[in-house]
Request: fold
Amino acid sequence: MAYEFTVSDVVPASPQAVYEAWMSSDAHGKMTGDAAEIDPRVGGEFTAWGGYISGRTLALEPGRRIVQSWRTSDFRAADHDSQLEVILDPVPEGTKITLHHTNVPDGQSGYEQGWRDNYFDPMREYFSHP
Reply:
């Protein structure tokens, strides 16, 4: 069995700026505070958090949507990749980021809070001080 969840938050940047930072090795690393390597094309592979997270980009709509296969080094070898859909919506304060994370293997937990602590919080800080 697997589970899914959705988390969202607002960051003080345009959807295009958030999209570009998410898909850039250098900016993604600066935005989250840890190393990332990203091939910014559909089919391109990525790693984040020093290799803890890895996957492949499945679909891109620049400034609007990113879909990636996603797994951490905590997944068992037999676990299928989960899927992450990142939706970027303009709001008066900047961008509402909605993450829909599906097919997370049983036994894997804490990712909802992890997105808040390791992405949303540092992203707000990063985009507050360009």
